[in-house]
DNA sequence: CGATGCGTTGATCGGTATCAAGGGGGGTGG
DNA sequence: CCACCCCCCTTGATACCGATCAACGCATCG
């Protein structure tokens, strides 16, 4: 699923993607406005807030776990702010591919031809770019033999070291 | 204080500012790299991790509080991602001034000539802009009679409604 | 077979970065 | 007490990256 915020005129910022087993809507106050939308077939499991909170009270370690998750998300958000505020288009795409690669590896899914479930427009709205720039940057990386597009949604990372150095802001 | 992340070549993104009574370094894993630096005279109170965690165990409501704080920060981070990814320079400055104004009001400090403790360079690194653009945008808002610069670090917001509509992406 | 949506590519525009210069205020040393 | 210096801020000129506008290919689906 994609999590996003909108401006009145329709500009959109995707603030994150959710994968299987991720949680949604944990903030206690219902005052934080954002939207969520499935990008692949999705099954959702709903908890009633009251019952969920009772559960937390009965199992304090669960609450610790949630705090850990929140902190992880916070760290990811800070990384994304660095990306959005200071990285070039090429660096953003490289960071994005690397993140997908690592996430897939951590989750035990195929990590090198990396599977990209979202379309170009979603990628753009996640990275603060237009779809055209996303497309052009993929083409550029392809021509430089850094990646190979096996299909629109499956990309092989040919040189992880180079991708990493680009993502970190060294590789021009 | 300012919290920031750096790229190897020195590009900097300030991911947030801390005010009196805010906490720092709560993430359990010490694996998240970021820096913090005081921008005004600062007194810091240090807790030993072990003792702090014991405290949390003894007072579960404290842990709930921390979870709430983390969620608030997460919401703020998402708002900032929207700003960094999709807002224009003018919209970013307007959002920034509005946020300082609301924060000051919530903390019972002077909120209309709003006090700006950080310098232009810090503001730029927080909003993903250059110092020159920050300066030019202040000038622009001043010429439009939307704000008045009573000093470099004290700005009067002359029309909150207009500022809000700019910040939300309506006011051109 | 036409319609529709997504992705790519090309041409041009514009907003912000960058490069450069100068002003002002506060602190320090003579 | 004054002069100098340094840092921060502002302003101007120019460059460039990415957005925007536009057209087209391609696949999917009705």
Account of the 3D structure:
Two copies of one chain form a homodimer. The first copy, chain A, has 172 residues and is of the alpha+beta class. Chain A contains six helices and six strands. In chain A, the strands form two sheets. Chain A has a three-stranded antiparallel β-sheet with strand order 2-1-3. A three-stranded antiparallel β-sheet of chain A has the order 4-6-5. In chain A, helix 1 (49-58) crosses helix 2. The model of chain A has no long low-confidence stretch (mean pLDDT 93). The A-B interface holds A 3, 5, 7-9, 11-13, 15, 26-29, 32, 34, 57, 60, 63-64, 66-68, 70-71, 73-75, 77-82, 84-87, 125, 127-128, 168-170 and B 3, 5, 7-9, 11-13, 15, 26-29, 32, 34, 57, 60, 63-64, 66-68, 70-71, 73-75, 77-82, 84-87, 125, 127-128, 168-170. The structure holds a DNA duplex (30 and 30 nucleotides).
Q: Brief description of this entry?
A:
The first copy, chain A, has 172 residues and is of the alpha+beta class.
